[in-house]
From TrEMBL:
Protein name: Glycosyl transferase 64 domain-containing protein
Membrane recorded as keyword: yes
Residues in Glycosyl transferase domain copies: 117-370
Organism name: Hortaea werneckii (Black yeast)
PANTHER family per record: ACETYLGLUCOSAMINYLTRANSFERASE
Organism phylogeny: Eukaryota, Fungi, Dikarya, Ascomycota, Pezizomycotina
Gene Ontology terms, MF aspect: glycosyltransferase activity
GO cellular component: membrane
UniProt-annotated location(s): Membrane
SUPFAM superfamilies given in the database record: Nucleotide-diphospho-sugar transferases (SSF53448)
Length: 383
């Protein structure tokens, strides 16, 4: 009998490596009186009673070892981070991440990046709204925001007051000048981008900080984040190729990159020196739009990125429903989307990229993530 008990002791010691220290403390506490009970069962009930008693104790111990852990923080608790607490932006721990996502032939292998996300916003002759923009994003109210990059597309230098203002915020702000105004620069990767997640954002889009954090967490929670765009403004292209701006019960197939999270590796693809990507960039710059709207300045780089994602990733985007935001350009009627003929110009872009990638590149979906008030017990649900 003693030899049998010693053998069980060794087996339990080997099993302890499977559990954490707290669980093994509980397991040890339960198993401490085991010998006395085993001897009692052996004397009173014989070998069969000893076997049953020992098996019962081991089962109870394993149950507690498996389930007596600290509760895991929920997604909602993550969203309720204090605005004053900012994470350490160290390299992402990829030990639990997938080693492949199926996009290696297009985007290259998965690589580690820093935590959080980077806002990249092109700006062109619209400095009057930058103060409201920076006050909304750069004051530390978005816990996961790592950096803001402003792409200065103006021909003249940035005004002195703007350069001085950039140093007054809690979030680092980088002002990068470009030689000319091009929609392609929205997707140009620079050394200043150190995170995997990039929020492509127009300089006239002011989104509630809580809803920015929520969208980032939604993007990050997806097992293969390189495959999915997450954004605030949805659009749909019908099977017949009709571009539709109004909501449809049939769902949506793109989110616009005037306010959308993408993976930084798609920026590398955008600037790849291949015939198809050179055609992409040339088309965006040349604005090949209907002749009756010669002055229209829509570059349709957002439609191009949606087709690029859809064709290679074959994954639908995710629309963040219920987010609070203020589209300054739209409300002042001076944004691109308010110009006459805008929808016809967008339709021309859709036709062009359908010819490049095929009619079935975009993936339609009716699923969306809902932003709900924090006091609602269903906050953060996905419908």
């Amino acid at each position: 009998m003693q030899a049998t008990l010693d053998a069980i002791d060794h087996s339990l010691a080997d099993a302890s490596a499977l559990f954490n220290n707290k669980s093994m403390t509980i397991l040890s506490g339960i198993m401490a009186p085991r010998r006395r009970l085993e001897v009692f069962c052996w004397k009173m009930l014989g070998p069969r009673g000893w076997i049953y008693g020992t098996a019962l104790l081991i089962s109870i111990g394993i149950f507690y070892a498996l389930f007596a852990h600290e509760p895991v923080k929920t997604f909602r608790e993550t969203l309720n981070l204090s605005s004053s607490s900012r994470p350490d932006f160290t390299t992402v721990d990829t030990s639990a991440a997938p080693l492949e996502d199926g996009l290696e032939s297009v985007l290259g292998p998965l690589r580690p990046y820093k935590e959080g996300f980077t806002i990249v916003s092109p700006t062109y002759h619209r400095t009057e709204g930058l103060t409201e923009y920076l006050d909304n994003y750069a004051t530390g109210d978005v816990p996961s925001l790592h950096k803001i990059i402003l792409i200065w597309n103006n021909e003249e230098d940035a005004p002195g007051w703007l350069n001085k203002t950039l140093t007054n915020y809690q979030v680092p702000i980088v002002l990068e000048r470009r030689a000319r105004n091009s929609k392609n620069y929205r997707f140009q990767r620079t050394p200043a981008i150190e995170t995997a997640a990039v929020l492509a954002l127009d300089d006239d889009m002011v989104i509630k900080p809580r809803d920015v954090e929520y969208a980032f967490q939604s993007w990050q929670m997806y097992r293969y984040p390189r495959k999915r765009m997450v954004g605030y403004i949805r659009r749909r292209v019908s099977p017949q190729g009709d571009y539709r701006m109004s909501p449809s019960p049939e769902g949506y197939s793109m989110v616009l990159t005037k306010s959308a999270f993408i993976h930084v590796d798609w920026m590398d693809l955008w600037w790849a020196d291949t015939p198809i990507m050179r055609d992409f960039r040339d088309y965006v710059d040349s604005r090949k739009l209907p002749e009756k709207y010669p002055d229209l300045t829509t570059g349709c780089e957002d439609i191009a990125m949606s087709y690029l994602y859809g064709h290679h990733a074959q994954t639908p985007p995710l629309w963040i429903a219920g987010a609070e935001f203020h589209d300054i350009g739209h409300s002042k009627l001076d944004g691109i989307s308010t110009q006459e003929g805008h929808n016809d110009a967008r339709q021309a872009c859709v036709h062009h990229f359908r010819e490049v990638f095929g009619k079935d590149s975009l993936v339609n979906t009716q699923i969306h993530a809902s932003v709900i008030a924090e006091e609602d017990e269903n906050a953060g649900r996905v419908d």
